[in-house]
Amino acid sequence: MAQALRLSMRSPAVVLEFMHPITWFAPMWAFACGVVSSGHAPGARWPVVVAGVVLAGPLVCGTSQAINDWFDRHVDAINEPDRPIPSGRLPGSWGLIIAIVATGLSLLVATVLGPVGFAAGVVGLVLAWAYSAPPLRLKQNGWLGNAVCGACYEGLPWITGAAVASGLVPSWRVFLVAALYSTGAHGIMTLNDFKSIEGDRRTGVRSLPVHLGVRAASRLACVVMVAPQVVVAGLLYLWGAWIEADVVALLVFAQIALMPRFLRDPRGQAPWYNGTGTLLYVLGMLASAIALAGTAPWPAP
């Protein structure tokens, strides 16, 4: 352990790589969308909002990545042997130690957010361990595992951001839109599974590409991404937010236009579509958040 600690202290870049900072963007963005959707300027609550963004991204999401890489080290040895643990750059049990310490730090910071923010942090961390660690290891079921990821990446931080920014229980509209974008994120999670098909198949992880086959899983991912956004656009039209509804609808059409390239070669093009289609997806989230802010059913305090 002492040797691993010395190695990690000399190589902070390895620890940062281990926690996958590129993945932090999604929950941080969702939290920010929640803040916008609340319809309240944070005012004196800005420090709490900033703490919430840090909690959603580097802390809870970073912790979940560390947990996943530790318990997936045998899978990564097949799919991505250059990752810190299988490559030997993070030796011994140091990966597990980082996950445990990061969990404690996340809980500490979550106390700053008040009861609602702390509860959300606890839920996110519990699901992070349940997703990757035995005995539950929810990721072994592609349907359930992707649903948990979608909720933690989109819905949970969105609702938490709205609650923290306003100091109030979010409206049912916020809950509904956050739930819809969480559902769509199930499809985004499926896109991430195409890169690890071989290791998943050999180690018993029933991701949707393994369970359904590459073609069926790719079509399902597209449908699951698009359908909730269509519902969101319809709701925004119903609530009178026509401009934002038009924006969401145009972004959906753009995603659909990009899908044929992905569907022709799902394994090869999943990273490309994850970068292009997902960008359009999250822009729609912001447009929806702005619409919710304009239709918030409570007065500003």
Discrete helix count = 14
Q: Domains counted in the coordinates: how many? A: 1
Could you tell me the radius of gyration in angstroms?
19 Å
Q: Secondary-structure element order, as H and E?
A: HHHHHHHHHHHHHH
Overall geometry comes to: globular
Looking at the structure, the CATH topology is Farnesyl Diphosphate Synthase
- Helical percentage: over 70%
CATH class equals Mainly Alpha
Proportion in β-strands: under 5%
List how many beta strands DSSP finds: 0
Could you tell me the mean pLDDT? 93
The residue ranges in which pLDDT falls below 50 over 5 or more consecutive positions are none
Major sheet characteristics: none
Known CATH architecture: Orthogonal Bundle
Gap between N and C termini: 52 Å
Structural class: mainly alpha
